[in-house]
């Protein structure tokens, strides 16, 4: 890896493998306390971040944060301050959602940007690619298996505390995955089709970078089609178009491949619609599955109103309804700052930097209709991609200037 300062350790690779296993392969592993999920991946992430903080302090790694990391973390502070002040002054309609937003936008940026990012100087990208390939391939295969199992048995195969949270016993009825007629969305170990789809779209650019097998890349895309989610289908089309001009070398063969891929994807979507008993109105639904109804009955304010309510599945409106237009502005600064730094940096042509950037952009695109930012493990992936991309960029600059 360009910019690696020290040799990656086997202990570090084991830690990386465990983190990816419980964040990517088994993200819902765990139990609930008072209705709030406590997942193995987030507990492990907290422990690793605490250990990283101790090592950073012991090795005096806080003299300066890697270039870009400090600026990206600073961009989160206005939103954090607004959230903390608002939560202290106003009642919350749903304490669980407010806590989730706090974890996603206060705790996770601190853990990943400040505690873990300095350790990324020793990140073994070969191991990252290997473990990511295994985890994403596994959840795609398991998702397809589970989709067929539910279709045949009309019941869900689960392993409590591993493939599902111990507190979730009625996933088929409670996770909005029923498409009617005994057909359910592909959910894999994510227990929700939209969460699975958005998370895989975020990881897909890195997966494509590390996975050379066309078979496995197509299999992951098949699993995304089987989510039967308009948001995910829209995201897939957007990803293929962006990847064709930004991640891949633009040639005639590339354009032909993209055209054929999009044609096959559209044909598969039309077949899926017919199979579910729907027509094109399902995709062109102006209410976005009823989501726009929430916007029409809500009142948009400049600042937070009389209560905190993260009520909508539409990412941008959800933030606006809870924190006002000021909150939306701070949210956009928080989310777009690392993307802008990676896009405008001198080393934006690095394939890994570009893959991280596009992965983050997929959440911003999917957020137009459904951005599950309050749900595990979406924001852990977002901040992780940001930290990896920015650290990679900083490592290039470190090498270019001959070290610090």
Termini separation comes to 18 Å
Order of adjacent strands in the largest pleated sheet? 1-2
Proportion of strand residues: under 5%
Low-confidence stretches: 1-6
- Please tell me the total number of domains: 1
Q: Based on DSSP secondary structure assignment, what is the total number of beta strands?
A: 4
Largest sheet: 2 strands, antiparallel
Dominant shape: globular
**Structural category:** mainly alpha
Helix content: 55-70%
Task: State the helix count.
Answer: 14
Task: Outline the structure in words.
The protein is mainly alpha-helical and 404 residues long. It has one domain (10-400). It has helices spanning 10-25, 40-58, 69-89, 95-116, 125-153, 171-174, 193-210, 214-225, 230-247, 252-276, 291-297, 315-344, 351-366, 378-400; strands at 30-33, 36-39, 178-180, 183-184. The strands form 2 sheets. The chain has a two-stranded antiparallel sheet. Strands 3-4 form a two-stranded antiparallel ribbon. Helix 4 (95-116) packs parallel to helix 14 (378-400). The protein is globular.
List the helices and strands and how they pair.
Elements: H1 10-25, E1 30-33, E2 36-39, H2 40-58, H3 69-89, H4 95-116, H5 125-153, H6 171-174, E3 178-180, E4 183-184, H7 193-210, H8 214-225, H9 230-247, H10 252-276, H11 291-297, H12 315-344, H13 351-366, H14 378-400
Helix pairs in contact: 1-2, 1-5, 2-4, 3-4, 3-12, 4-14, 5-7, 5-8, 7-8, 7-9, 7-13, 7-14, 9-10, 9-13, 12-13, 12-14, 13-14
């Amino acid at each position: 890896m360009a910019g690696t300062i020290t040799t990656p350790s086997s202990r570090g690779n084991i830690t990386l493998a465990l983190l990816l296993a419980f964040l990517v392969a088994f993200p819902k592993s765990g139990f609930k306390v008072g209705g709030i999920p406590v997942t193995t991946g987030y507990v492990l992430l907290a422990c690793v971040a605490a250990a990283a903080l101790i090592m950073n302090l012991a090795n005096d790694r806080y003299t300066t944060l890697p270039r870009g990391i400090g600026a990206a973390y600073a961009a989160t502070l206005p939103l954090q301050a607004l959230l903390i002040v608002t939560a202290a002054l106003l009642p919350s309609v749903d304490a669980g959602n407010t806590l989730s937003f706090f974890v996603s936008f206060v705790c996770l940026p601190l853990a990943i940007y400040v505690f873990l990012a300095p350790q990324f100087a020793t990140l073994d990208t070969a191991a990252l690619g290997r473990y990511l390939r295994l985890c994403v391939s596994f959840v795609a295969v398991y998702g397809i298996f589970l989709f067929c199992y539910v279709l045949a048995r009309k019941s869900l195969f689960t392993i409590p505390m591993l493939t599902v949270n111990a507190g979730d016993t009625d996933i088929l009825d409670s996770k909005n995955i029923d498409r009617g007629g005994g057909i359910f969305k592909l959910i894999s170990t994510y227990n929700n089709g939209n969460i699975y789809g958005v998370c895989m779209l975020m990881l897909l650019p890195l997966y494509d970078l590390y996975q050379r097998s066309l078979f496995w890349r197509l299999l992951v895309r098949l699993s995304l089609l089987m989510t039967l989610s308009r948001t995910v289908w829209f995201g897939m089309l957007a990803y293929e178009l962006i990847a064709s001009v930004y991640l891949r070398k633009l040639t005639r063969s590339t354009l032909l491949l993209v055209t054929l891929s999009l044609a096959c994807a559209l044909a598969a979507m039309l077949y899926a619609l017919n199979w579910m008993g729907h027509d094109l109105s399902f995709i062109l639904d102006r209410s976005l599955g009823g989501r726009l109804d929430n916007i029409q009955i809500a009142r948009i304010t400049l600042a937070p109103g009389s209560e905190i309510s993260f009520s909508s599945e539409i990412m941008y409106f959800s933030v606006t309804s809870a924190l006002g237009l000021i909150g939306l502005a701070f949210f956009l600064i928080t989310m777009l700052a690392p993307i802008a730094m990676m896009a405008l940096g001198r080393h934006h042509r690095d394939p890994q930097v570009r893959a991280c950037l596009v992965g983050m952009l997929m959440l911003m695109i999917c957020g137009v209709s459904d951005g599950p930012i309050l749900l595990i493990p979406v924001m852990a992936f977002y901040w992780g991609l940001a930290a990896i991309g920015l650290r990679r960029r900083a490592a290039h600059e470190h090498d270019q200037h001959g070290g610090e």
